[in-house]
Amino acid sequence: MIELKELSCSFSDSLFSRNKFTAVSPLSIKFRKGGRYAIVGESGSGKTTLARMISGLQKPSGGNVFVGEKPVYRKNKNLKEHFKNVQIIQQNSLSALDPKMLVGRSIEEPLICFFRMDKNTRRKRCEELMGICNLPADYYSRLPCELSGGEQKRVAIARALAVQPQCLIFDEATNGFDLPLRKKIIEEIIQLQESIGFTLIFITHDIDLAVEVADEILVMRDSKLLEKVKFSGDISVFQNEYSKILLRASRHKPVKLSYERNN
Amino acid sequence: MKTKLQIIIGLALIAAFILIALLAPVLAPNDPNATDLSRKNAAATKEFPLGCDQMGRCELSRIIYGAGYSMGLSVPVLILLAAVSLFAGCYTSYKGGVIDEIARLLCDILMAFPLIVIAMALVTSIDNSVLCVLAAISISMSAWFMRMVRSYAKTECGKEYIESSRIAGASEFRIVARHLVPNVLPQFMVYFTTGIASAIMAVSSFAFLGIGLMAGTPEWGAMLNEARNSIYTNPGLIIYPGICLVVCCAGFNLLGEGLRDFIGREDEVNVV
Fold it and tell me: Does A113 contact B168 at a Cβ distance shorter than 8 Å?
């Protein structure tokens, strides 16, 4: 279980300036194990900063993240242990992969760093992971720029799964994909989650996506958490005006996914 | 096509000069240091294809041995220097904070002094030796190398893949060695090859000024200096080493510029 306690983040303009820009106002959330969450909000609402704080990439200015009972941000503490628990898949998968490193080697990196696997086990596990993510085995020796956007995203997912994390965060998982591809990727992610059972957090500006996949939806605006609802297909649970505006503004009806909602 | 031709010509020239330098004892028709005043400024003969210099030494042999001096001194030093500044530059810019600031300051301070000032300071205060000249070149060139590496490494550090390899559990050393260095290397190679050309020029200019190498050494710059007095009587003595110096540097510069265009194009392809 991951718990955020009074987590906040603000940036100052410059070293000497007293003006502070608040990216995330103090908020407390609990993410239970195996849950599917979506954090929804417009650009600049602080959702990416929140995701970065949960994943250990951005030091919070107040509060802390707890995995189990242990605080993540401590003095002189290596975050490697935290990365073992929580993995984030970044917005732009092309720039999240080293352009000079073969796809296979990128996927093997966590296997080397976390599990110290030898060459043969590593290769075997890598091919297994590529199979899970629907990547052909001969992609092992390709460069990221030779892959399509969807394939790059799958490489990033394979790489994150290699760590066997308890929690997987998707920062704009489907940004820039057309609808069929978006549907496909989301379905694949959900299938993976159901078979492996990690906590899934989607960070998205797309409320349709949130409504489709999540069983708990958190709406953010102007660095604040507006509401948190348990969602099971009925949009009347949203109380906040802003959430309703977001829902009304969505362009299309939620695409019916081929998996069954289990609650 | 033009880029490829540039790279091929550059590589061919460099390879030729390296071969000449390595095979000098075999290629040279005479001993480069054997003086014979009776042959002073002698015209070209079969035995001395480019004639003799003001001390009666075989000009061709001296030029052939000179290739070894010009490149043999600067290239190994530069390779070592390049490796060190590549790692140091990448590491400091990845690490950030105080180390980063110190590295930046150090580069700025060293870059403020021209190479020749550093060389003269070292030579007058320590010893008029090749080592001092090489040390001066190392000091001033490493600042430029490091500065250049750091500016590219900073851009790379801002990219998401560095962050994602951190999440993948990579150690600092691994990130620098496996991700930063390979990504900075292509641009660095361009700078490095043109750097070799300027280092060769620097060694020769110092030799011309009498700094570093002993008088009478068959080094192109030193030969130019000795031939100054006979510029009207025997202009060949100044032309031949001059041509060698120009062509040798041109080889490295052609390679460097060819690589730059080649890499530039590759980057464009990557973006699309």
Answer: yes
Q: For chain A, which residues make up each domain, given as ranges?
A: 2-249
Residue B46 lies in a domain: no
Rounded CA-CA distance A55/A75 in Å is 17
A83-134: per-residue pLDDT in tens? 988 999 988 888 889 988 999 999 999 999 999 889 999 999 999 899 888 8
Question: Structural domain tally of chain B?
Answer: 1
pLDDT tier for residue B271 given thresholds of 50, 70 and 90: very low
0.90 cut: is pTM over it? no
B9 Cβ partners below 8 Å, 6+ apart? B251, B254
The two three-digit tokens of residue B178, written as one number: 């496996």
Structural contact between residues A133 and A161, judged by C-beta atoms closer than 8 angstroms:
yes
Task: Round to whole Å and give the CA distance between B265 and B87.
Answer: 26
CATH number for the domain including B102? 1.10.3720.10
pLDDT band for A177, please (50, 70, 90 cuts): confident
Query: Of the candidates A88, A97, A99, which has its C-beta nearest B167's C-beta?
Result: A88
Which CATH number fits the domain A2-249, given the four candidates 3.40.50.2300, 3.40.50.1970, 3.40.50.300, 3.40.190.10? 3.40.50.300
ipTM exceeding 0.85, yes/no: no
Chain B hits for A159, CB-CB cut-off 8 Å, are 164, 168
